[in-house]
């Protein structure tokens, strides 16, 4: 009996180790995992989402079915990785996206029922990719992701820290313009300097009376006398 229990535990352990695991993708490791050469299926979910919990076993089966392919299967918790949720403009849960060559395609709900076929029959090519300007891997997407992380960080602060942060920002907004030179003042100084430069150039170019002109004037005055 004891030997049977040990054998059962070993079988379960081997089965667990051999079972493919869905990769947990986060704000911190996404750039190192999702490269331009890799192909991914990513599911965005939340622990409180009932539909996500129902979809989880099916998604695990997808990972198991694609374990012999080059496609990697991952998932993103929108609560712990708000930057990624913002970068991918996630609007509903669960959301599944296909990524290849950093081109992102949002998988329609009806196609999530057969994700294995979507990959093996390359049906993802029929889905229009996200615009390059707003892609999660563009400069705009990166900025939106950073904003999402900052909003999540700010929401985790205590009310006292929020008040202090707001006062600091208000002080910067009020005090900074005082020490910044105004455009009108700079323009007046530039005009005044330009006038002075013009006057000096004009004075330097003004001809001095020649000696012959002076002598002629003296002769005329003598003849009159």
Automatic annotation (TrEMBL):
Biased composition (Polar residues): 186-203
Annotated PANTHER family: DUMPY: SHORTER THAN WILD-TYPE (PTHR46107), THIOREDOXIN DOMAIN-CONTAINING PROTEIN (PTHR46107:SF3)
Stretches that traverse the bilayer: 161-180
Keywords, ordered alphabetically: Disulfide bond, Electron transport, Endoplasmic reticulum, Membrane, Phosphoprotein, Redox-active center, Signal, Transmembrane, Transmembrane helix, Transport
Domain Thioredoxin: 12-135
Pfam family, one: Thioredoxin
Annotated CDD domains: PDI_a_family (cd02961)
Protein's recorded name: Thioredoxin domain-containing protein
Any one of the GO CC terms: endoplasmic reticulum membrane
Subcellular location: Endoplasmic reticulum membrane
Membrane topology label: Single-pass type I membrane protein
């Amino acid at each position: 009996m004891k030997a049977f229990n040990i054998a059962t535990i070993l079988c379960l352990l081997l089965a667990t180790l051999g079972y493919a695991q869905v990769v947990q993708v986060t704000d911190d490791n996404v750039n190192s995992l999702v490269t331009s050469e890799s192909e991914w299926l990513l599911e965005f979910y939340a622990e409180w989402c009932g539909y996500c919990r129902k979809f989880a076993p099916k998604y695990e089966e997808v990972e198991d079915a694609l374990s012999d392919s080059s496609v990697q299967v991952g998932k993103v918790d929108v609560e712990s990785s708000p930057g990624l949720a913002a970068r991918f403009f996630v609007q509903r849960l669960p959301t599944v996206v296909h990524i290849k060559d950093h081109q992102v395609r949002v998988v329609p709900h009806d196609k999530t029922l057969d994700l294995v076929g979507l990959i093996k029959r390359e049906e993802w090519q029929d889905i229009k990719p996200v615009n390059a300007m707003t892609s999660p891997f563009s400069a705009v997407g990166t900025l939106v992701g950073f904003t999402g992380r900052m909003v999540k960080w700010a929401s985790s602060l205590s009310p006292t820290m929020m008040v202090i942060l707001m006062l600091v920002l208000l002080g910067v907004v009020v005090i900074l313009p005082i020490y910044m030179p105004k455009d009108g003042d700079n323009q007046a100084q530039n005009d005044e300097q330009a006038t002075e430069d013009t006057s000096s150039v004009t004075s330097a170019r003004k001809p001095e009376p020649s000696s012959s002109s002076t002598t002629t004037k003296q002769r005329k005055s003598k003849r009159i006398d």
